[in-house]
Design a protein that fits this description.
Strand content: under 5%
Helix content: 55-70%
Number of helices: 6
Largest sheet: none
Number of strands: 0
Structural class: mainly alpha
Order of helices and strands: HHHHHH
Shape: elongated
Distance between the termini: 51 Å
Length: 110
């Protein structure tokens, strides 16, 4: 945690001339940064991938894709480790996972 903004002040001072002042002096936006998403996901990837795999493998959403594409995604997901995933793959899988969860709540009506 950051105590009394001391660490933030040091970072703001150090980044002068490197970051634009509008970003460097922004005191209002805090929290997790998207630049470290992959790093944070890797920590729990083995647990998450099993949950995502079981959801996607049973979801009608994935069947809307070309067969070779969804088979490839499921295969890569099942074989993946925390160290061989990349941001683009995680992003694709998370989008499909979110769509699958949404479909479970709001099924298509045809």
């Amino acid at each position: 945690t950051i105590a009394n903004n001391v660490e933030r002040a040091v970072i703001r001072t150090y980044m002068k001339g490197i970051l634009p002042d509008s970003i460097r002096n922004n005191l209002f936006h805090r929290g997790l940064q998207s630049a470290d998403n992959l790093h944070r996901i890797q920590k729990d990837w083995m647990q998450w991938k099993d949950i995502i795999y079981s959801t996607l493998s049973e979801s009608p959403i994935i069947m809307l894709m070309k067969e070779n594409e969804w088979k490839y995604i499921l295969h890569r997901l099942k074989k993946s480790t925390a160290h061989d995933i990349d941001f683009e793959f995680v992003q694709q899988v998370c989008i499909l996972y979110s769509c699958s969860l949404y479909y479970n709540i709001h099924p298509f009506k045809g």
